[in-house]
Amino acid sequence: MGQNLAIQDTPDNHSGINQTEETGYETLAAKAQDGNWNLSILVQGVTCALCIQKIESALNARQEVKTARLNFSAKRLYIEWEGDAASANDFIKIVENLGYGVQPYDEKSLEEGTKSEERFLLLCLGVAGFAMGNVMLLSVGIWSTTAETMGMGTRELLHWISALIAMPTIAFSGRPFFRSALKVLRTGHTNMDVPISLALILASGASLFETINGGEHVYFDSAVMLTFFLLIGRYLDFKARDHARSSAHNLLQSFQGFATVLQNDQTKRVLIRDLKEGMMVKIAAGEKFPVDGIIKSGASTVDTSLVTGETLPREIKIGQEVFAGTMNIAAPVTLTVSKAADDSLLSDIVRLMDKAGQAQASYVRLADKAARLYTPVVHTMSGATFLGWIFLGGIIWQDALMIAITVLIITCPCALGLAVPVVQVLATSKLIKKGVFVKSGDALERLSAIDTAIFDKTGTLTEGELKLKNVPDKKAFQLAASLASHSLHPLSKALTKAYEGQLLQLDDIQEHEGQGLSAIYEGQTIKLGSRTWCGDKGAKPSGFVELWLNIDDSKYCCFYFEDTLRSDAKNVINHLKSANIKSFLVSGDRREVAERIGQEAGIEKIYAEQTPLQKYKILENLQKEEHKVLMVGDGLNDAPVLKSAYVSIAPGTAIDMAQNAADIIFTGDKLGPVYEIYKTARKTQNLVKQNFALAILYNIIAIPLAIMGYVTPFIAALAMSGSSLLVIANSFRLKLGT
Amino acid sequence: MSVLIYLIPIALFLGLIGLVAFIWTLKSGQYEDLEGAAHRILLDDDEKTDD
């Protein structure tokens, strides 16, 4: 698990350090009509079934609680109780004492639309599914015999029943396509939904016409089946997008936490979004700075890795500036708010991302590109067929219309419509099994076209965690680890983590702000801290991050730390190189560190000490030169680049905002998945192109026959299903091999 | 063929029951927390709190 996650989400961090006497949650409780109160909050650190049980049963054990239910997917806890609004704070304390982090959640701000949209899609899908089952049942009978054996009467009866099921179903379940088609037509463009809608309307309309006129062949089954399969794709796509949306939403909620404001020597809990310039805010050790500000009193150490990508914590003194989103590690401080929450560095980054998101929306998916070509060509062709048969062929207009409709139906965009989504759904589900989450299908499409890759350093190329490099002496190690276990400093945590023995009992432990720790052991004063405070000043600098142990100012011992490269990073870079993709390293960290890591990984182009804005500029310049750039990063400072890059990947240890901005997320402590995803993307794209080729080939053969009027309805139906099946079968080749 | 007069309504009726059941599951919010449902199956039933 990366450093970022360890700091942010580990529940242990929340117990003990971050406890507050008053919380202010009663102001968020809402009163229902029946007099009961309810409250929704976000819970952090929920990972398994046990968490659900622990939280729910602890709350349900309270007499006044009516309902306590944890939505595991959204990490949202809903509590309903009778009595007093102030009980809300008790409930929060219960959850916090169990070791979970709690954040206020403002339900009203959630886009209500997404929830009803999901229900709508599911309902359409369900209706189409059940209708398909029933129509197919009848179709088996219709297609397996001829009108002579079955008898015209029975056949007509079956047609009518099919029509009775299919017509309302198409009208009901086809709405997602009809709506989208209408919307895009109004703006004077077309997308894949236009031919799909037209095919649905025509197939069912022509079938109804045939049914009424006692015709022999109807296509209700094809129309309903097409609706059902396309809706499945639509729903999966929606789920992926929804997941991305809700994680963004949860992140914005973090602006709605509380801060302790100092006013006339009294403390008050205030919602972060209500903080104003000039207010005095108290920040406990282990708490995140909610806003940008200037330190007014106290001194401490700040972990800025989430914002700047620097691995080492920074010391802060009175008068220095701190940024929202960074973490106060060592001691409580008071700060004056310099910018309200809306203007903080964090919100600047969020805004930069919004801008980037809009730019990306101009990307046109391959399927839509195909639709732009397909729609006018096919429609012109069938119009020409109609006119041609009337004026040149000299037949009555009803027959000409039937031939024209056959042309439209036989070019039915089933195969085209399925060409992309089937492969993408298969590729996505294959990747999920490997721990890779692809948020939108077109991400793979874009990934297959990249020619440049930008890597972040901390947490992306490296494991994002300082690791102990040496053990100078066993006894000293034990002593140092025992002392370090009393501190939240990343170095102390790394030291404690590396140590696996018994801890010693120490007396008089003190934390010296910005310097280190001291304690008494067996009458000796031991210190653990920076070189300047307790180190051997004469020793040669090592070039690594150092932590010194000092026993009674007579014995010195030095521990070295290093953020190590992911074990397969070099391989990945090499593979990309052989696929003609140039790699860049862009880091916010110091030059020496960035260069060492970059060289180790085999990256030639290295940018160090970059601010988030500079990182963004590098990307902009590359994109101006028409490069298609993949961004791989995990920090807050990478978020704008992740969002605006042609395509982006983030590790699962990345902070929420980076995960939200990225198109693809991979898990595990290896970098290998990045290349794996790229390979799968290439393969996917090849299959998509083959599918298009198959669909086009089918049309080249079928359309002329249809135009000439040679195609009987039965052949049309077979050809339609046949081409779809061919495309699906070809897509399944993705499952073969690795 | 007269058997169709019974069989078709029966088939349609069974389908309809399925559809109604699906709409009920949808309305009662059973698709809102799909991940949670996968975990909840591992939990024991709630113990009574009034002891």
What attributes characterize this protein structure?
heterodimer, A: 738 residues, Alpha-Beta Plaits, Calcium-transporting ATPase, cytoplasmic domain N, 6-stranded antiparallel beta sheet, 26 helices, 50% helix, 18% strand, elongated, disordered N terminus, B: 51 residues
Tell me how many strands of chain B there are: 0
**Going across the major beta sheet of chain A, what is the strand order?**
15-27-26-25-16-23-24
Structural class of the helices, strands and pairings of chain A?
alpha+beta
Rough outline of chain B: elongated
Q: What oligomerization state is this entry in?
A: heterodimer
> What class do helices, strands and sheet pairing of chain B give?
mainly alpha
Poorly predicted ranges of chain A: 1-21, 358-362
Whole-number mean pLDDT of chain B = 80
The biggest beta sheet of chain A reads:
7 strands, mixed
Q: Number of DSSP helices of chain A?
A: 26
Q: In CATH terms, what is the architecture of one domain in chain A?
A: 2-Layer Sandwich
Distance between the termini of chain A: 27 Å
Strand percentage of chain B:
under 5%
Domain count of chain B? 1
N/C terminus separation of chain B: 65 Å
